[in-house]
Model the fold of this input.
Amino acid sequence: MIDAQGLYKQFGTVQAVVDLELQVPQGSVYALLGPNGAGKSTTINMLTTLLRPDRGTIVIAGHDAVRDSDAVRRVIGVTFQDLVLDRDLSGREALDFYGRLYGLDATTRTQRTKELLTLVELNDAADRLTGTYSGGMRRRLELARCLMMQPQILFLDEPTQGLDPQHRAMIWDYLRMLQQQHGMTMLITTHAMDEAELLAQQVGIIDHGRMVASGTPADLIGQFGSDMVRISADFPADYQPNWQHDTWVRNWSIQNGELRVGVDHGSRRIATILDGLRADNLQVTDMNMTRPSLGDVFLQTTGRALRDEVKS
Amino acid sequence: MMNATYAIWLRHMRKFMRNREELGGLLIQPILWVALFGVGMGRMLPGQSNYLSFMLPGILALTALGGAAGGGMMFLDERLRGILREYMVAPIPRLSILLGHMCATVSKAFFQIIIVVIVGVLAGAQLGGSVVAWLGTLVALVCFTLGFAGIALGVAARSKSIMGYHGMIFLFNLPLLFASNALYPLDKAPVWMQWLAKANPATWFIDVARSSAQSGDMSANLLNLGLLLCFAVAGTWLALRRFQAVTAN
Done:
């Protein structure tokens, strides 16, 4: 449904996206993860025909995004990270205008507007100016807007950014419903790992414009074994633990003074790891063990913790 | 194409009618120009038999220029706020996006121009001329506005900020009018300025308006009309080119 091959885009001397490959089968949800400035927006802009790639091909629902951009535009729905709603229009007018832009006749516009306002539960606020809406209401209206033309594929850039937990859950429900009941193909970008794990069948992690990991969330997390041991200590640079080549080690890294080891059995291996550190005269200041998550995959592949990046 | 242009035009007109500040401002502006500048200057120049009649076309040009600058501002605002991207992902020609904005600009300017003419006549401007001549003036005014709306949109398509846009647009506004025959007859101006004024679309328009008000003979103005038509096309082309350069296609 979405097939991007060898995508490349450069701004001045900055390589924004480098040889990116991305496939999303029909009816599935793909989550594109990455720190700010990793190339997510550039990628989504190219996929939605807003930006022309320097190299590479994009085929959306069988149409070439560069040569046949209007055909692509007819089958996609897009919401943007920064809300683009016109504050001087009411919710109903915003939807009606969108239908008009695409040349939809008045009867169909009225009918779809009514259906969509019901879907996103905005009937009561439909005739208020969108400038008076809360963030969550605006996101819902944006979702309704991008469904107005009954697209086959949705591109949602940070669909729940800045929302309270209730509204996030509400948006997730809509998105799951769209996938399950309408077989909608979706590509979302997100900062929230829980969102990606919950919604997506495929995940791609992008950093410095390159795809650094991709696969199902279960596969990606599976690389870390069944447990993740985290140990804080004053590690020297280029520290090489003596157990690193043992068969029970799935994955290991040291970042910001924290050692993370994905292992087959946490409780069985923790003593071995600690013994190794003690043999190297390292003082352990903290230690814990968790199930690995997509967040660990992200940290491992991008070398940046999400919480730092959200602040910036 | 026409559909999308109409949709964008309609959206702007609806917002315009709803915006009391903008509506009020655009209404009062031309009245003040006629009342303060036209009448005031007229008293200072006793030699001119009817200065207001002379300079009314200048006020029309100024109004159209202000409208064009406002149209660019509206476009820039939508661009900076990201609203423009809503149009960009729609399967509509990029030209229709520009034309929608330009038509809205012309419509607003037209609304002001009617007020200028009414206030001008009430304040004592003498307007003669035939229906054909006035239709010609109207066409000239539309072309003039479209041309500058195109330039304004072209600037707005690339401007990084509202301040930057204003800096650019002010260059086109009053100085353009001073370098034309809008406010004073050109025969006393230095030769270089006469040449400058002759190459100025404001002069072309003012010539058309002035001669239709006085003699009503349109044939002398065919050249000016032609020039203005080219100017409108060139403005649109410029806007489209600058717009396309910042978008995919």
Notes: The first helix of chain A runs from residue 40 to 47. DSSP finds eleven helices and 14 strands in chain A.
